[in-house]
Amino acid sequence: MKMLMAGCVSGVESSVSCRSLLDGDLGSRSDPLCASLQEVGGGRWAELDRTERIKNSQNPEFCKKLVVGYCFEKVQKLKFAAYDIDNKSFDLNDDDYLGGIERTLGQIVSSSVFTQPLELKQGKPAGRGTITISAEEIKDTRVVYLEIEAQKLDKKDFLGKSDPFLEFYKQNDAGMWQLVYRSEVIKNNLNPCWRKFSVPLQTFCGGDFNKPIKVQCADHDSDGSHDLIGSFETNLTQLQKAEKKQKKKSYKNSGIIRIKSCKLEAEYSFLDYVMGGCQINFTVGVDFTGSNRDPKSPDSLHYISPDGINEYLIAIWSVGSVVQDYDTDKLFPVFGFGAQVPPSWQLFHEFALNFNPSNPYCQGEDTSLLILHWEGQMFEVFAAHSAQGTASQYFILLIITDGEITDLDQTRQAIVNASKLPMTIIIVGVGEADFKAMEFLDRDDGVLKSLTGEPAAQDIVQFVLGLRWEPAPQEVLSHMALAEVPKQLVLYYKWQGWPPVKPPEIKTI
């Protein structure tokens, strides 16, 4: 979930489906996803959220909900845009645009459910494509945890067993079925056990334990023509009790679904941790390598222009001005890398910008350390946290650089190691270099792995380009850089099983 905008009174999640999308692929259907964007001024848009990609579908029903903070006092202009994804790049600019719509959030919440034709640009329809959006206020922070297995499913593949997956639907007030969860596919297995999953209670059944829920089990086909194995209807109350059989027309029994566990738990939010005493510590790493050029020269990225700013300062101000509110002493350690440091002018790959290596860090009762080490084009991040076992400290490391990482294997391993720690790494690219390696490290499309195949425990890297959003670069940069932090913080402490130091009062459920 993205961080809600400051001052917003509530959160809104939107369910999205499309019909008759343009077919951008030769020999197969499009692989669409839908992104939500918010206007940030000057006709420019900043991405808020995106759904999953669905392969080979012109009529996708997206499972992932799009979340935005609702502010009554603001006109929040939103765009919902569908793209055909044919590469591994996170950047949507190199994907085929299948059409979009523009509406204000006020229009969306007042309509509740609406369907509208997609447009390639204003006044130009995107074929017969339409988009349907259903919006709900986020009222309940509880989460449904389910663990499910199946037995003796029907065989649907001629040359092998079925490749089953599950879909859960809730029935909305209009009587229509709305997708709320889609499981992973388990290959060639008639007795699958799907991995444990969770769905927000609000998303799962709108907080109504008796709201009808439909469960479908289907055999996955790569061309998108999935075969239904069976389905049944239930509700959350029943799911907490018993084993259910799947039934389908012309079948006495097409398999058995067994609910191994169904639990309802409270979900701590980002604000629960912050208001419970979690401090966010901010550390900055600044690139001083030769490619930045002489700071006295106007073509240097470090050049202080007549208006007193440059891309580095804008990046630090943008992120630091937000983070400082969550750190009591508001003192941030700043390191440089790749420079000759006075008075000896010796080359240092890592040095404190205040030239006080014994005390370049934030002051506090805890002894916390984050060091950026740059050697050529390779960095390693080390973190020592003296309050292990509690949710009292979280770290944000901001790296501002003009260059691409060439020692990618060591960098990947360093990030995989750091993913086990309470930290987020934000990389801001300045200048006009090729940042494909940075985009690879961000890996919003999957899990980053080391060269040996070890996966990152958490997604901790966020890469953004710097001064690209005139006339409001600072506001957009801070949003793009920090949007993932609340989710990453909550996921880390949830992974560790650590509640807030001072948990909020929670009613028994």
| Number of individual domains | 3
How are strands sequenced across the largest beta sheet?
21-18-17-24-25-26
Q: What is the helix fraction of residues, given as a range? A: 10-25%
Quickly name the level 1 CATH class of the largest domain. Answer: Alpha Beta
Query: What is the arithmetic mean of pLDDT?
Result: 77
How far from one another are the termini?
23 Å
Named at the architecture level, the CATH assignment of the largest domain is: 3-Layer(aba) Sandwich
The CATH topology of the largest domain? Rossmann fold
State which percent range the strand residues make up: 35-45%
Uncertain spans, ≥5 residues at pLDDT below 50? Answer: 1-7, 243-251, 362-387
Q: What's the total helix number? A: 9
Oligomerization status of the protein chains: single chain
Task: Give the overall shape.
Answer: globular
Helix-strand category: alpha+beta
Describe this protein's structure:
The chain is an alpha+beta fold and 509 residues long. The protein has three domains: 10-138, C2 domain (Immunoglobulin-like, Sandwich); 142-266, Immunoglobulin-like (Sandwich), CATH 2.60.40; 270-496, Rossmann fold (3-Layer(aba) Sandwich). The protein has nine helices and 26 strands. A six-stranded mixed sheet has the order 21-18-17-24-25-26. A hairpin with a 2-residue loop joins strand 2 and strand 3. Helix 5 (311-323) packs across helix 8. It starts with 9 loop residues before the first strand and ends in a 13-residue tail after the last helix. The model is unreliable at 1-7, 243-251 and 362-387 (pLDDT under 50). Keywords: Repeat. Belongs to the copine family.
